[in-house]
């Protein structure tokens, strides 16, 4: 799959000295929703990836429909960093999407302030398991629809109903390959998390 950024395009390769706060966030979602693509789009450092070729064992277990170019899957995590403003650095941990790696989330979620959950409307029911895991762990989340070409578009309110989201849970849409739209969804998540902190709703 390769890195999304070439070295000459790296914006920052060190944490600026002005940064006083760092936050760990998960980028979660079921198999193939675009987590690795998302972390690659927003990270200002060359993202760490743990991609392996999808094996025969996955065929029939993971739904590959609508993912013609997908030949690899994340087996441990993605890692990226983005300095959101001069004081705040976000450390992004993309989770593996295959069900067999679900136990790995246990460790990945330690210390995470929140999660951005990507969903694909072509297999929206698969998001339920992801949302349940986060709720069980007490990790607050926002949801972003990754708009794949060819996928039917639905009003966000319909998606909110389908996912049975709480009224306050932020719901946005993006294209995981588009840095600005992806960043906007991250900003929405961070604002939500900070607002919860100031109102005493820590989620843990
Ligand atoms: N058209 C389109 N394709 C996308 C988008 N995001 C990701 N893709 C493609 O969809 C496939 C899956 O993307 P990944 O980023 O590997 O998805 P993932 O969620 O990390 O997958 P796992 O780690 O296997 O769960 C890849 O072939 C991407 O190139 C998008 O916004 N639009
Ligand atoms: Mg991945």
Labels describing this entry:
binds guanosine-5'-triphosphate, 204 residues, single chain, two-stranded antiparallel ribbon, 6-stranded mixed β-sheet, binds magnesium ion, 25% helix, alpha/beta, 8 strands
Summarize the model shown.
The strands form two sheets. This protein has a six-stranded mixed beta sheet, with helices on both faces.
Largest sheet descriptor: 6 strands, mixed
Query: How many DSSP-defined strands?
Result: 8
How are strands sequenced across the largest beta sheet? 4-5-1-6-7-8
Which spans of ≥5 residues are poorly predicted at pLDDT below 50?
Answer: none
Q: Give every kind of bound small molecule, once each.
A: guanosine-5'-triphosphate, magnesium ion
The coarse silhouette is: globular
Rg on CA atoms, Å: 16 Å
Reading the helices and strands in chain order gives: EHEEEEHEHEHEH
Beta-strand fraction estimate: 15-25%
Oligomeric status? single chain
CA distance, first residue to last residue: 36 Å
What does the average pLDDT come to? 90
If helices are DSSP runs of H or I spanning 4 or more residues, what is the number of helices? 5
Measured as a percent range, the helix fraction is 25-40%
């Amino acid at each position: 799959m390769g890195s999304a950024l070439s070295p000459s395009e790296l914006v920052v390769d060190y944490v600026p000295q002005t940064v006083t706060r760092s936050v760990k966030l998960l980028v979660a979602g079921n198999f193939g929703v675009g987590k690795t693509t998302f972390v690659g789009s927003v990270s200002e450092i060359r993202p760490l990836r743990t991609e392996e070729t999808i094996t025969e064992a996955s065929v029939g277990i993971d739904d590959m429909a609508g993912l013609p170019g997908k030949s690899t899957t994340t087996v441990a995590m993605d890692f990226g960093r983005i300095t959101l403003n001069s004081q705040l650095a976000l450390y992004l941990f993309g989770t593996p999407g295959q069900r067999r790696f679900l136990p790995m989330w246990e460790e990945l979620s330690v210390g995470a302030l929140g999660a951005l959950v990507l969903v694909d409307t072509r297999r929206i029911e698969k998001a339920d398991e992801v949302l349940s895991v986060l709720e069980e762990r007490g990790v607050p989340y926002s949801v972003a629809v990754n708009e794949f070409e060819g996928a039917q578009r639905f009003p966000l309110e319909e998606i909110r109903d389908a996912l049975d989201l709480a009224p306050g849970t932020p719901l946005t849409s993006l294209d995981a390959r588009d840095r600005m739209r992806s960043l906007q969804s991250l900003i929405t998540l961070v604002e939500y998390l900070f607002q919860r902190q100031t109102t005493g709703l820590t989620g843990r």
